[in-house]
């Protein structure tokens, strides 16, 4: 049997903007079977927003698929591509509360939670806060946002060894005297109201973020200036603050969710979220099914990763 392909493209049957407080409205959509098994998709980034292919990890005949753009990205309002938009009320506890408010708004009792990369972080945080609302978890490219995980991504001791040209471009966008703390230096520039300052910094930030997304290089997406700035602002906002997670981290909360059926999928050559994070989660949660895909990196669209994810949603639909 060959690798599973995406389900065919599908359009939403319902959409809306949900007021979640603090002046924020999140864009949501529902696809598939209105009477099917409820599932919610949590996108990555943070600040990545939804893509049409995100709908295609689920059998539309069996699932009621819920997707939404997290605060200040995608089609949610206000949009972080405007440098005047504050991110003060954009934190992990806010996003967890948004997921729960959306569940209540749609009249869903319990649902499957699917998240990749940052979406896996948010899925774990939500499940630990609301375990009674989760029927199952599908987690890809596990991101625990621990200090060592950030050191891998943003210091010369980590992924820079494997992507030297890309790291040099990222580092060299900052003057030599400020390179001791690249995160802080980028933060000052990305949040500068002057486009002549924030746009070059945002482009360099996104260039490094996208450098290691897949096992084999793919052309970078063609993003407009507002999208680049929004993604850079939100991603930096979270990464520079430890993901707004409790000091003990996400592994400490696994006992609250070990009864929930779960599938963990990670690429062997994932350079964004190396597989030690998924392995550490599996060791803390041995009941969770664990798949290390040998010929894959970070991207959810890579054939081996996609196969395992769709296989998981198919099996969990029966539960």
How would you characterize this protein structure?
Its EC number is 3.4.11.5. Keywords: Aminopeptidase, Cytoplasm, Hydrolase, Protease. It holds the Pfam family Abhydrolase_1. By secondary structure, this protein is of the alpha/beta class. It is built from nine helices and eight strands. It folds into two domains: 14-146 and 244-318, 3-Layer(aba) Sandwich (Rossmann fold); 148-241, no CATH class. An eight-stranded mixed sheet has the order 1-2-4-3-5-6-7-8, with helices on both faces. Strand 5 (111-116), helix 2 (118-129) and strand 6 form a beta-alpha-beta unit. It is globular and about 55 Å long.
Helix content: 25-40%
Envelope shape: globular
Mean pLDDT comes to 96
Strand content: 15-25%
Would you tell me the structural class of the helices and strands? alpha/beta
Secondary-structure element series: EEEEHEHEHHHHHEHEH
**CATH-wise, what's the superfamily of the largest domain?**
Alpha/Beta hydrolase fold, catalytic domain
Contiguous uncertain segments of 5+ residues: none
Strand order of the largest sheet: 1-2-4-3-5-6-7-8
H/I helix tally: 9
Cα(first) to Cα(last) distance is: 23 Å
CATH level 1 name of the largest domain: Alpha Beta
Q: Indicate how many domains the architecture comprises.
A: 2
Summarize the biggest pleated sheet: 8 strands, mixed
Assign the CATH topology of the largest domain: Rossmann fold
Radius of gyration based on Cα positions = 19 Å
The CATH architecture name of the largest domain reads: 3-Layer(aba) Sandwich
* Number of DSSP E strands: 8
């Amino acid at each position: 049997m060959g690798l599973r392909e995406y389900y065919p493209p599908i359009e939403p049957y319902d959409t809306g903007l949900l007021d979640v407080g603090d002046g924020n409205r999140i864009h949501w959509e529902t696809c598939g079977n209105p009477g099917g098994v409820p599932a919610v998709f949590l996108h990555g980034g943070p600040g990545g927003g939804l893509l049409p292919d995100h709908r295609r990890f689920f059998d539309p005949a069996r699932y009621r698929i819920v997707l939404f753009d997290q605060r200040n990205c995608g089609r949610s309002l206000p949009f972080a591509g405007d440098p005047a938009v504050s991110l003060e009320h954009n934190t992990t506890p806010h996003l967890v509360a948004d997921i729960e408010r959306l569940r209540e708004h749609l009249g869903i009792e319990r649902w499957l939670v699917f998240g990749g990369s940052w979406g896996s972080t948010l899925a774990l945080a939500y499940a630990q806060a609301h375990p009674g609302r989760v029927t199952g978890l599908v987690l890809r490219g596990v991101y625990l946002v621990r200090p060592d995980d950030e050191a891998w991504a943003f210091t010369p001791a980590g992924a820079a060894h494997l992507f030297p040209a890309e790291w040099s471009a990222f580092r060299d966008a900052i003057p030599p005297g400020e390179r001791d703390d690249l995160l802080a230096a980028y933060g000052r520039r990305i949040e500068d109201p002057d486009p002549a300052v924030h746009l070059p910094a945002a482009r360099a930030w996104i260039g490094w973020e996208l450098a290691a997304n897949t096992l084999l290089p793919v052309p970078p997406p063609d993003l407009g200036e507002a999208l680049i700035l929004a993604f850079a602002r939100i991603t930096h906002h979270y990464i520079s603050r430890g993901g707004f997670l409790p000091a003990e981290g996400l592994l400490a909360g696994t006992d609250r969710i070990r009864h929930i059926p779960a599938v963990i999928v990670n690429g062997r050559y994932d350079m964004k979220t190396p597989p030690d994070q998924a392995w550490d989660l599996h060791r803390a949660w041995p009941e969770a099914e664990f798949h290390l895909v040998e010929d894959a990196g970070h991207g959810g669209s890579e054939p081996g990763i996609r196969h395992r994810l769709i296989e998981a949603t198919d099996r969990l639909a029966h539960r």
